[in-house]
Structures are given as C-alpha cells and as structure tokens.
Amino acid sequence: MRLVKILTDSLKLLFRRPKIYIPNLFASFLYTVFELVLIYYTLDLVYAVSMTSGYLSPGLIHDNMLPLIGLLLFYPFIGAIDLITYAMYPSMVSDYRSAGRVNLMSSLKNSLKSWRIILTFGLIIMFAFILLFFIVLFFSVLSLLLDEVYMVYISLPVILVYILVLMMAVFFLIPVGVIEEEGVYSSINKSLKLSIKHMREVFFLESFFMILVLSALSLGVLVNVGKINVGLTLTAVFLFIAVRLTQSVVYTYISVVNPYFYLERR
C-alpha cells in the first residue's frame, strides 16, 4: 500500500470511528485542567509579588509556592496516563482493520499489559529530552563564550537531526510491543530493523508528523502569549480549550497513522 493511501485511510478511520478520539481527548482534558490551574496560581503569585514592594515574607512564599509545587509533582502522573492512552491506539487500529470495530476497554487492557514497553518508551523520551537540553545548553554557552551568534544557528540542524534519529529509533516501539506482545529488547530490536528497512518512508512520516506537531504547538504559543497579557479571562480560557482540542485531533491522527503504517509494513 502506498504511503499516501495509508495517510488517507488513517484519516477515514477518524471519521468512521469517532470514539477513537476518546483516549487522546481524555489525556488532553487532564493537560488542559493542569495547565489552566498552573496558570491561575502562577498569575496569583505574580500579583502577590507585585503587591509586596519587593519584600517576600516566608508566609507569602509558602502560601503561593505550595500549590505550584504540588501541581508539578502531579505532572508525572498525567504524563503516565498520556503514555497509556497513546499505547491504546495500536490495538484500536489493529481491531478496526481485522474486525471493523474499535474496542476501548480491550485496547486499554492491552496497553496496561504492555507496561514494560510503555515504561521503556517513557524513559527513552525522558533521557532524550535531558540530552537535548544539554545540547542546547552547550551551543548557548559556546555562543556566549565566543560571542558568535552563528553558533545558535549551527545548533538548529544538529537538534533537528537528533530529533529525527530519536524518532526513527522508537518509531515502531509501541506498535511492536502492543500488537505483537514482544518483550522490551525484542521490540527495540524489531523497531530499529523496521525503521532502517523503511527508512525513506519513516523519514517522510517523521517530517510530516513534525510539521503537524509544530503547527499545533504554534497555535498554543499564540494563545499563551495573549492569555498572559490579558490574564485568565473567560475568553482566554475558551480559546485555550479550543486550541487544546485542535491539538488533540492532530495527535490522534498521528497516533493512528503510526500503527496503521506498521501493520502495512511489518
């Protein structure tokens, strides 16, 4: 099957089985509530600081920082739910292709059974972001030491290549682990082999996904800028939720294309 047909068939699946949006919408809802509450307490802290004439009492710091710390500690739990819902999509796509139906509960059970793969995937992404931070930090410090702005521009292709290589390395990890019920080592090995075998198509899909994600994130940035300027108004909240829903649709499409492509190329 041609890659274009895989992309169009994945899009048709979203229209034919709308409940396939539910897992991503649920994760998006949690992120939205988390971010809105975080923004509320952050603005509250900024307002409190602006009213103190530069003096921050221990009580003020405690009362305003405690909710923020609690929220940040809660964030990994939301991230775990996000990974679990993402790992539901290989089962849903596989069920649809074989029986023409989507079973959310069965997909959730298959996702939870594959917790080792999900944990491995999450750890890989976490350490990859830590390494990415140090890459950015290295080029930023180098730019300051040499007083050369072009070092920042040199870092951009390096970062882009790094992200593409990372995505290629784990591209099939979740579909292999969930659909084939493979172990961690076997899933990583098979994912790498398939990525190398279908390198051109995987590279195209990665680039396509990156464009979609950046487009979705850019909407969020625009709304965040406006929201910070006007405060947490009702209009800003509705606009923020609308953007999160749009992002959720984009991420759902990506979550469907990935296992759909795997099932066609395995």
Polypeptide structure, described:
The chain has one domain (3-265). Helices cover 87% and strands 0% of the residues. It contains eleven helices and no strands. Helix 4 crosses helix 8 (173-179) and helix 10 runs antiparallel to helix 11. It starts with a helix and ends with a helix. Residues 225-230 have low confidence and may be disordered.
Give the SSE layout:
Elements: H1 3-16, H2 22-50, H3 58-86, H4 89-99, H5 104-113, H6 115-146, H7 150-170, H8 173-179, H9 184-197, H10 199-230, H11 234-265
Helix pairs in contact: 1-11, 2-3, 2-11, 4-5, 4-8, 4-11, 6-7, 8-9, 10-11
Question: Tally of extended strands?
Answer: 0
Helix/strand order, N-terminal first: HHHHHHHHHHH
| Low-confidence runs of at least 5 consecutive residues | 225-230
Structural class: mainly alpha
Strand proportion: under 5%
Number of helices: 11
Query: What global shape is seen?
Result: globular
Mean pLDDT over all positions:
85
Distance from N terminus to C terminus (CA atoms, Å) equals 12 Å
Largest sheet: none
The proportion of residues forming helix, as a percent range, comes to: over 70%
Q: How many domains, in number, for the residues?
A: 1
Task: Output the radius of gyration.
Answer: 21 Å
